[in-house]
Amino acid sequence: MKLNRYILLAFFVLHVNLVFAQTKPNVVRIPLGSSVKFAVGDQAGSYSFQWYRDGKPMPNGTEAVYVASVAGLYQVVSINESGCKSDLSDGFLLIIEYADLEVRKVSEARYVGPGETFEYQISIHNNGNSNATGIEVIDRLPGNLKYLGVTGEPAGTLNVVGQDISWKIPALANNEKMVLSIKTSAIKAGRVTNTANVTAVEPDPNLANNSSTDVKEIIGKVAVPNVITPNGDGKNDVLYIDGLELYPEHSLSIFNRWGSEVYRSKGPYKNDWNGNGLNEGTYYYLLKVKEKDGKERSTISWITLIKD
Questions:
Q1: Buried-most residue among 13, 36, 144, 214 (CB within 10 A)?
Q2: Buried b (16+ CB within 10 A) or exposed e, 180-193
Q3: Using DSSP, how many helices (H) and how many strands (E) does the chain show?
Q4: Coil, strand or helix: which one is 233?
Q5: C-alpha separations of 259 from 238, 270, 277 in Å
Q6: Residue 125: its pLDDT value, please?
Q7: pLDDT tens digits for range 230-277
Q8: Cα separation of 140 and 157, whole Å?
């Protein structure tokens, strides 16, 4: 025989208060990290019970009360002394509310040298299913960077003390995104590593995306070596000219000691000349670059080609 369906009651285990679920339909929402108790409303008679989540029986769900902390549809079946089962109850749909904040820090893709202004973009995105509150992004600029300001009017509150940048936002809805653009410049050439971190009041189920690191090369002056040794040892095998990235408009020509041209780059030089097919000896180069003010600068010097 079938037993009548039983009405479920749900109450939250939050702090010390008990709150009965009253939503229609039977939807219960709790924050990440908390739990809720589901109970059979009428426990009269000698019955045992079996709780289900998403249609699957719960191994430890055999009492009149079940404590749940995992999202899903919870239902129960009552079983009398004769082993007859009731229909599945209507149940409750448990939704776990969380805010999953993701931060990304990215510098401009273009090449820059010391003293040139460039931007970092810090974006925060809420991947969760509920609002995030009390958000703060901390960005500690390394010593080689100078803070110059921001682009536009950023949301929230921005506070800069020395090299420390704090960006506070009261709330961020689920699937909402905000961006902060920071203007800066490098003091000297070299690699700049910069990390931004984000936190919020709500527990975050994915801490892996709460920090983001950008690595940027600050290009120094053009430097041309005077010796290449193309012997395949990976050292000085080609004529590698540092700093050409800053000058996309440039050309390179190489001449032997009699003034005959033995190499000319087709467009920007690709750092690939190794003296292939030439004898050892001294060669001369003409490097032309167009400065950022439009003026052309030429450099003439020598290179020694050594073959082991």
A1: 36
A2: bebebbbeebeebe
A3: 0, 22
A4: coil
A5: 21, 23, 17
A6: 97
A7: 988 989 999 999 999 999 999 999 999 999 999 999 889 999 999 999
A8: 16
Does position 24 have pLDDT exceeding 60, yes or no? no
Distances, alpha carbon 177 to alpha carbons 41, 100, 140, in Å: 44, 12, 22
**Which residues, in sequence order, are CB contacts of 71 under 8 Å at separation 6+?**
94, 95, 96
- Residue 177 phi/psi, 5-degree rounding, is -135, 140
Between strands 296-305 and 227-228, the pairing is: parallel
pLDDT band at 20 (very low <50, low <70, confident <90, very high): very low
Per residue in 124-145, pLDDT (tens digit) is: 999 999 999 999 999 999 999 9
Q: Which long-range contacts (CB under 8 A, 24 or more apart) does 82-86 make?
A: 82/1, 84/1, 84/2, 84/3, 85/2, 85/3, 85/50, 86/2, 86/3, 86/4, 86/5, 86/6
Instruction: Please name the residue that has the structure tokens 């969380």.
Output: 98
Instruction: Show the tokens assigned to 1.
Output: 């025989």
CA distances for 231 relative to 101, 163, 206, 235, 271, angstroms = 52, 46, 50, 8, 16
* Residue 255 CB burial class (10 angstroms; 0-12, 13-18, ≥19): middle
> E-strand spans in 27-98?
27-31, 35-40, 48-53, 56-57, 65-68, 72-79, 92-97
Q: Which of 77, 87, 99, 91 is nearest to 28 (CA)?
A: 91
The structure's pTM equals 0.75
Distances in Å between the alpha carbon of 122 and those of 108, 146, 152, 170, 225?
A: 11, 16, 13, 17, 38
User: What 3-state class would DSSP assign to 245?
Assistant: helix
Side chain identity at residue 95, one-letter code: I
